[in-house]
Protein backbone atom coordinates (compact mmCIF):
# COMPACT_ATOMS: atom_id res chain seq x y z
CA UNK A 1 0.00 0.00 0.00
CA UNK A 2 1.31 3.49 -0.84
CA UNK A 3 0.49 6.86 0.70
CA UNK A 4 3.39 8.91 -0.67
CA UNK A 5 5.92 6.73 1.15
CA UNK A 6 5.72 2.96 1.45
CA UNK A 7 4.13 2.22 4.82
CA UNK A 8 4.00 -1.50 4.23
CA UNK A 9 3.30 -3.87 1.37
CA UNK A 10 2.05 -7.37 0.80
CA UNK A 11 2.53 -9.71 -2.12
CA UNK A 12 -0.36 -12.06 -2.70
CA UNK A 13 0.42 -15.78 -2.97
CA UNK A 14 -1.72 -17.80 -5.35
CA UNK A 15 -2.01 -21.18 -3.62
CA UNK A 16 -5.09 -20.56 -1.45
CA UNK A 17 -7.98 -18.17 -0.95
CA UNK A 18 -11.36 -18.17 0.77
CA UNK A 19 -14.34 -15.96 -0.05
CA UNK A 20 -17.61 -15.49 1.83
CA UNK A 21 -20.30 -12.82 1.76
CA UNK A 22 -18.66 -11.06 4.70
CA UNK A 23 -14.93 -11.44 4.02
CA UNK A 24 -12.16 -12.73 1.81
CA UNK A 25 -8.89 -14.26 2.93
CA UNK A 26 -5.68 -15.21 1.17
CA UNK A 27 -2.03 -15.89 1.87
CA UNK A 28 0.52 -13.15 1.29
CA UNK A 29 4.05 -12.05 2.13
CA UNK A 30 3.84 -9.01 4.42
CA UNK A 31 6.71 -6.50 4.43
CA UNK A 32 6.55 -3.76 7.03
CA UNK A 33 9.29 -1.82 5.23
CA UNK A 34 10.94 -2.11 1.82
CA UNK A 35 14.18 -3.69 3.04
CA UNK A 36 12.45 -6.40 5.04
CA UNK A 37 12.44 -9.97 3.72
CA UNK A 38 8.85 -10.31 4.89
CA UNK A 39 6.77 -13.03 6.50
CA UNK A 40 3.91 -15.18 5.26
CA UNK A 41 0.56 -14.18 6.77
CA UNK A 42 -3.13 -14.72 6.14
CA UNK A 43 -4.74 -11.50 4.95
CA UNK A 44 -8.39 -11.18 5.96
CA UNK A 45 -10.36 -8.30 4.44
CA UNK A 46 -13.88 -7.74 5.75
CA UNK A 47 -16.71 -6.76 3.41
CA UNK A 48 -20.13 -5.24 4.01
CA UNK A 49 -22.10 -2.04 4.52
CA UNK A 50 -20.10 0.90 5.84
CA UNK A 51 -23.18 2.63 7.30
CA UNK A 52 -26.11 1.24 9.30
CA UNK A 53 -29.12 -0.10 7.44
CA UNK A 54 -32.06 2.09 8.33
CA UNK A 55 -34.43 -0.89 8.15
CA UNK A 56 -32.42 -2.92 10.65
CA UNK A 57 -30.17 -1.00 13.01
CA UNK A 58 -29.12 -4.27 14.67
CA UNK A 59 -27.06 -5.26 11.61
CA UNK A 60 -23.42 -4.36 12.39
CA UNK A 61 -21.47 -2.38 9.81
CA UNK A 62 -18.20 -3.67 8.42
CA UNK A 63 -16.46 -1.22 10.75
CA UNK A 64 -18.27 -2.64 13.78
CA UNK A 65 -17.34 -6.20 12.83
CA UNK A 66 -13.74 -5.28 12.07
CA UNK A 67 -13.33 -3.46 15.40
CA UNK A 68 -14.81 -6.35 17.38
CA UNK A 69 -12.56 -8.93 15.75
CA UNK A 70 -9.49 -6.68 15.97
CA UNK A 71 -10.02 -6.02 19.69
CA UNK A 72 -10.31 -9.72 20.41
CA UNK A 73 -7.37 -10.86 18.26
CA UNK A 74 -5.14 -8.16 19.73
CA UNK A 75 -5.62 -9.78 23.17
CA UNK A 76 -5.05 -13.40 22.15
CA UNK A 77 -1.53 -14.75 22.67
CA UNK A 78 -1.64 -18.53 22.79
CA UNK A 79 0.32 -21.28 20.98
CA UNK A 80 -2.90 -22.88 19.70
CA UNK A 81 -4.54 -19.71 18.40
CA UNK A 82 -3.61 -17.99 15.13
CA UNK A 83 -2.76 -14.52 16.43
CA UNK A 84 -2.76 -11.02 15.00
CA UNK A 85 0.40 -9.79 13.24
CA UNK A 86 -0.75 -6.41 11.87
CA UNK A 87 -3.88 -4.53 10.79
CA UNK A 88 -5.15 -1.68 8.62
CA UNK A 89 -8.52 -0.14 9.46
CA UNK A 90 -8.52 1.87 6.22
CA UNK A 91 -9.24 -1.26 4.18
CA UNK A 92 -10.81 -3.32 7.02
CA UNK A 93 -7.90 -5.77 6.93
CA UNK A 94 -6.36 -8.07 9.55
CA UNK A 95 -3.00 -9.78 9.04
CA UNK A 96 -3.00 -13.07 10.91
CA UNK A 97 -0.30 -15.62 11.69
CA UNK A 98 0.09 -18.21 8.95
CA UNK A 99 0.27 -21.84 10.02
CA UNK A 100 1.29 -24.75 7.80
CA UNK A 101 -1.39 -27.14 9.06
CA UNK A 102 -4.56 -27.85 7.11
CA UNK A 103 -8.09 -27.63 8.45
CA UNK A 104 -9.89 -30.78 9.56
CA UNK A 105 -12.42 -30.52 6.71
CA UNK A 106 -9.72 -30.36 4.03
CA UNK A 107 -8.73 -33.30 1.78
CA UNK A 108 -5.64 -33.73 3.97
CA UNK A 109 -7.83 -34.90 6.87
CA UNK A 110 -11.18 -35.77 5.27
CA UNK A 111 -11.85 -38.53 2.74
CA UNK A 112 -13.27 -37.04 -0.46
CA UNK A 113 -14.68 -40.22 -2.00
CA UNK A 114 -15.35 -43.92 -1.61
CA UNK A 115 -17.06 -45.70 1.27
CA UNK A 116 -15.48 -43.33 3.80
CA UNK A 117 -16.36 -40.12 1.95
CA UNK A 118 -16.48 -37.12 4.32
CA UNK A 119 -15.11 -39.11 7.28
CA UNK A 120 -11.94 -38.28 9.21
CA UNK A 121 -8.68 -39.79 7.98
CA UNK A 122 -6.77 -39.48 11.24
CA UNK A 123 -6.39 -41.73 14.27
CA UNK A 124 -7.63 -41.71 17.86
CA UNK A 125 -4.21 -40.34 18.87
CA UNK A 126 -4.71 -37.42 16.48
CA UNK A 127 -8.13 -36.85 18.07
CA UNK A 128 -6.54 -36.78 21.55
CA UNK A 129 -3.93 -34.23 20.51
CA UNK A 130 -6.51 -32.02 18.78
CA UNK A 131 -8.86 -32.12 21.76
CA UNK A 132 -6.08 -31.23 24.22
CA UNK A 133 -4.83 -28.31 22.12
CA UNK A 134 -8.25 -26.78 21.47
CA UNK A 135 -9.30 -27.30 25.10
CA UNK A 136 -6.20 -25.35 26.14
CA UNK A 137 -7.10 -22.52 23.73
CA UNK A 138 -10.73 -22.33 24.91
CA UNK A 139 -9.78 -22.43 28.60
CA UNK A 140 -7.31 -19.61 27.96
CA UNK A 141 -10.06 -17.58 26.26
CA UNK A 142 -12.28 -18.15 29.28
CA UNK A 143 -9.68 -16.60 31.57
CA UNK A 144 -9.38 -13.41 29.51
CA UNK A 145 -11.37 -10.22 29.85
CA UNK A 146 -13.14 -8.57 32.73
CA UNK A 147 -16.65 -9.93 32.25
CA UNK A 148 -16.39 -13.69 31.97
CA UNK A 149 -14.03 -14.50 29.11
CA UNK A 150 -14.66 -15.05 25.41
CA UNK A 151 -16.94 -17.34 23.43
CA UNK A 152 -15.50 -18.45 20.07
CA UNK A 153 -18.98 -19.03 18.65
CA UNK A 154 -18.13 -21.11 15.58
CA UNK A 155 -16.16 -24.22 16.54
CA UNK A 156 -16.16 -26.66 13.61
CA UNK A 157 -13.62 -28.79 11.68
CA UNK A 158 -13.09 -26.04 9.10
CA UNK A 159 -11.93 -23.66 11.85
CA UNK A 160 -9.32 -26.01 13.31
CA UNK A 161 -5.95 -26.45 11.61
CA UNK A 162 -3.86 -29.50 12.42
CA UNK A 163 -0.46 -30.88 11.61
CA UNK A 164 0.62 -34.21 13.03
CA UNK A 165 3.67 -34.15 15.28
CA UNK A 166 6.86 -34.91 13.36
CA UNK A 167 10.02 -35.79 15.28
CA UNK A 168 12.16 -34.68 12.31
CA UNK A 169 10.77 -31.13 12.43
CA UNK A 170 12.17 -28.58 14.86
CA UNK A 171 10.18 -28.18 18.06
CA UNK A 172 9.27 -24.55 17.33
CA UNK A 173 7.13 -25.54 14.36
CA UNK A 174 5.43 -28.55 15.95
CA UNK A 175 2.22 -26.86 16.92
CA UNK A 176 -0.49 -29.54 16.68
CA UNK A 177 -3.96 -27.99 16.42
CA UNK A 178 -4.71 -24.29 15.91
CA UNK A 179 -8.01 -22.47 16.40
CA UNK A 180 -8.83 -19.89 13.71
CA UNK A 181 -11.61 -17.50 12.60
CA UNK A 182 -12.89 -15.30 15.42
CA UNK A 183 -15.59 -13.58 13.35
CA UNK A 184 -18.34 -14.72 15.75
CA UNK A 185 -16.39 -14.42 19.01
CA UNK A 186 -17.97 -12.43 21.85
CA UNK A 187 -16.94 -11.36 25.34
CA UNK A 188 -19.18 -11.94 28.36
CA UNK A 189 -20.65 -14.44 30.81
CA UNK A 190 -23.89 -15.06 28.91
CA UNK A 191 -24.81 -14.56 25.27
CA UNK A 192 -27.88 -14.13 23.08
CA UNK A 193 -26.21 -14.34 19.66
CA UNK A 194 -27.10 -17.38 17.54
CA UNK A 195 -24.50 -17.00 14.79
CA UNK A 196 -22.40 -20.01 13.91
CA UNK A 197 -22.70 -23.20 11.88
CA UNK A 198 -26.08 -24.90 12.60
CA UNK A 199 -24.88 -28.49 13.10
CA UNK A 200 -22.47 -27.42 15.84
CA UNK A 201 -24.76 -25.12 17.83
CA UNK A 202 -25.80 -26.33 21.29
CA UNK A 203 -29.52 -26.82 22.08
CA UNK A 204 -29.58 -23.91 24.54
CA UNK A 205 -28.44 -21.52 21.80
CA UNK A 206 -32.00 -21.43 20.44
CA UNK A 207 -33.85 -21.15 23.74
CA UNK A 208 -32.36 -18.50 26.01
CA UNK A 209 -29.15 -16.89 27.10
CA UNK A 210 -26.25 -19.30 26.99
CA UNK A 211 -22.69 -19.47 28.28
CA UNK A 212 -19.29 -20.52 27.00
CA UNK A 213 -20.33 -24.18 27.39
CA UNK A 214 -21.84 -23.72 23.93
CA UNK A 215 -18.29 -24.05 22.56
CA UNK A 216 -17.92 -27.35 24.43
CA UNK A 217 -20.96 -28.82 22.69
CA UNK A 218 -19.65 -27.70 19.29
CA UNK A 219 -16.28 -29.28 20.02
CA UNK A 220 -18.12 -32.44 21.10
CA UNK A 221 -19.78 -32.66 17.66
CA UNK A 222 -16.35 -32.17 16.09
CA UNK A 223 -15.12 -35.09 18.20
CA UNK A 224 -17.90 -37.33 16.87
CA UNK A 225 -16.37 -36.66 13.45
CA UNK A 226 -12.81 -37.25 14.67
CA UNK A 227 -13.81 -40.54 16.29
CA UNK A 228 -15.39 -41.75 13.04
CA UNK A 229 -18.97 -41.81 14.33
CA UNK A 230 -20.22 -39.32 11.75
CA UNK A 231 -19.07 -37.71 8.54
CA UNK A 232 -18.87 -33.95 8.20
CA UNK A 233 -22.53 -32.98 8.80
CA UNK A 234 -22.32 -29.96 6.49
CA UNK A 235 -21.58 -32.42 3.65
CA UNK A 236 -23.57 -35.48 4.67
CA UNK A 237 -26.74 -34.02 6.21
CA UNK A 238 -29.67 -32.16 4.59
CA UNK A 239 -29.25 -28.37 4.74
CA UNK A 240 -30.40 -26.68 7.93
CA UNK A 241 -32.06 -23.51 6.67
CA UNK A 242 -32.51 -20.96 9.42
CA UNK A 243 -32.25 -17.30 10.29
CA UNK A 244 -30.09 -16.46 13.30
CA UNK A 245 -32.39 -13.60 14.32
CA UNK A 246 -35.81 -15.21 13.75
CA UNK A 247 -36.15 -18.99 13.74
CA UNK A 248 -39.24 -20.19 11.88
CA UNK A 249 -41.25 -23.28 12.81
CA UNK A 250 -39.65 -25.44 10.10
CA UNK A 251 -36.14 -24.46 11.14
CA UNK A 252 -36.93 -25.10 14.82
CA UNK A 253 -38.19 -28.60 14.02
CA UNK A 254 -35.08 -29.34 11.94
CA UNK A 255 -32.85 -28.16 14.78
CA UNK A 256 -34.73 -30.29 17.34
CA UNK A 257 -34.44 -33.37 15.12
CA UNK A 258 -30.71 -32.79 14.67
CA UNK A 259 -30.10 -32.39 18.40
CA UNK A 260 -32.10 -35.57 19.07
CA UNK A 261 -29.81 -37.45 16.68
CA UNK A 262 -26.70 -36.06 18.36
CA UNK A 263 -28.09 -37.24 21.70
CA UNK A 264 -28.60 -40.72 20.24
CA UNK A 265 -24.99 -40.75 19.02
CA UNK A 266 -23.84 -39.58 22.44
CA UNK A 267 -25.71 -42.35 24.27
CA UNK A 268 -24.46 -45.03 21.87
CA UNK A 269 -20.86 -43.80 21.96
CA UNK A 270 -18.75 -46.70 23.24
CA UNK A 271 -15.07 -47.63 23.02
CA UNK A 272 -14.28 -50.01 20.18
CA UNK A 273 -13.65 -53.62 21.11
CA UNK A 274 -9.98 -54.10 21.89
CA UNK A 275 -9.23 -50.36 21.90
CA UNK A 276 -6.54 -48.80 24.07
CA UNK A 277 -7.20 -47.25 27.46
CA UNK A 278 -6.51 -43.84 25.94
CA UNK A 279 -9.30 -44.23 23.39
CA UNK A 280 -11.70 -45.48 26.07
CA UNK A 281 -10.96 -42.42 28.19
CA UNK A 282 -11.41 -40.16 25.16
CA UNK A 283 -14.85 -41.62 24.45
CA UNK A 284 -15.92 -41.07 28.07
CA UNK A 285 -14.84 -37.43 27.89
CA UNK A 286 -16.70 -36.80 24.63
CA UNK A 287 -19.90 -38.19 26.14
CA UNK A 288 -19.74 -35.51 28.85
CA UNK A 289 -19.05 -32.75 26.31
CA UNK A 290 -22.39 -33.42 24.58
CA UNK A 291 -24.59 -33.42 27.67
CA UNK A 292 -27.48 -30.96 27.49
CA UNK A 293 -26.97 -30.06 31.17
CA UNK A 294 -23.93 -30.16 33.48
CA UNK A 295 -21.66 -30.18 30.45
CA UNK A 296 -17.90 -30.30 30.89
CA UNK A 297 -16.35 -26.82 31.03
CA UNK A 298 -13.32 -25.72 29.03
CA UNK A 299 -11.24 -25.54 32.21
CA UNK A 300 -12.24 -29.08 33.23
CA UNK A 301 -11.55 -30.34 29.72
CA UNK A 302 -8.12 -28.69 29.69
CA UNK A 303 -7.22 -30.43 32.94
CA UNK A 304 -8.54 -33.81 31.78
CA UNK A 305 -6.64 -33.72 28.46
CA UNK A 306 -3.42 -31.98 29.50
CA UNK A 307 -1.51 -35.27 29.32
CA UNK A 308 -2.38 -35.57 25.60
CA UNK A 309 -0.93 -32.21 24.57
CA UNK A 310 1.97 -32.45 22.12
CA UNK A 311 4.07 -30.24 24.39
UniProtKB/TrEMBL annotation:
Domain Protein kinase stretches: 1-309
SMART domains given in the database record: S_TKc
Signal peptide stretch: none
One cellular component (GO) term of this entry: cytoplasm
Coiled coil (UniProt feature): none
Name of the protein this chain belongs to: Serine/threonine-protein kinase PkaA
Xref: Gene3D superfamilies: Transferase(Phosphotransferase) domain 1
Gene Ontology molecular functions: ATP binding; protein serine/threonine kinase activity
Organism: Cytospora mali
Amino acid sequence: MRTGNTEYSFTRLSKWESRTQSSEAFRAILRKHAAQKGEVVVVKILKGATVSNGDNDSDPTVGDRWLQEFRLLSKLKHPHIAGLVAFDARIWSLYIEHKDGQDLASPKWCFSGGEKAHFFKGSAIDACHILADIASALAYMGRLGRIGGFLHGNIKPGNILYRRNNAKVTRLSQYGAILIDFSDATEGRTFLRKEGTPWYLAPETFKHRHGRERDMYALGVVMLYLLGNIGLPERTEPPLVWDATSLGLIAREQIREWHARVEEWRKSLQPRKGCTGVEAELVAIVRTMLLQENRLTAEELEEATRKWALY
